[in-house]
Amino acid sequence: MLKTFVFFNLFLISFFSTSQSDLGAWYMSFNTVKFGERWQFQNDIQYRSFNFGNDLEQLMLRGGFGYNLTENNNNLLQGYAFIRSGELGLVDESTETRINEHRLYQQFITKQQFGRFYIAHRYRLEERFIGDLFKIRFRYFLNMKVALSQPKIGSNTLYAAFYNEIFVHGQGVLFDRNRLYGAMGFSFSPKTRIEVGMMAQLYQNTYRPQLQLGFFKTLDFR
């Protein structure tokens, strides 16, 4: 299963990197640390590039403390994020304008499992501080994973992953963007997995494809 996953994703990366001149790439690490009975700390580090290397689109550092209202489900979280954004085609930090954003966010996640199907809903409110500007944004994220090689996602499991996320402004024009994603994932264990996929990011008048590589890790100190 691991060989199948590697072969498929090498083909995916090769195909899209040669066929899309405007293809971006996101490299992401998601980490969850569980402590106490229901408390946890979640953080992610994301490097987003306009190409596959040093043309910075965004560097995101995000983390927050969450509490499970029920065991391993219905999670409330308060977090903070720092985002540094670059400009397309400019790779020299001394000549380009880079924008820093500080962001507070609150979210609620609820999950269900139906056999091989894992579904998660995330509702997020963001307070964004961008220079002298203050903005509010709402996000709804629907995620589904499907176990392929085994009845459930556990050790050495190949799975498919999909999500759709819509962003809505709290002021002005309501629609901000929509993200549609499909990927293949491999779960090394119940606490470690990797995903490689494509995300289509739709704005009001533009579209941009993104290759995504994500690593997910859970540490349990309970």
Description:
The relative contact order is 0.17. A hairpin with a 2-residue loop joins β6 (117-130) and β7 (133-147). This protein has a single domain (2-220), classed as Beta Barrel (Porin), CATH 2.40.160. The chain has an eleven-stranded mixed barrel. It is 8% helix and 67% strand. The protein has 222 residues and is mainly beta. It has one helix and eleven strands; from the N terminus they run αβββββββββββ. The chain is globular and about 50 Å long.
Distance between the termini: 31 Å
Main CATH class = Mainly Beta
Overall radius of gyration: 18 Å
The class by helix and strand makeup works out as: mainly beta
Average pLDDT reading: 88
* Fraction of residues in helix: under 10%
What's the arrangement of strands in the largest beta sheet?
1-2-3-4-5-6-7-8-9-10-11
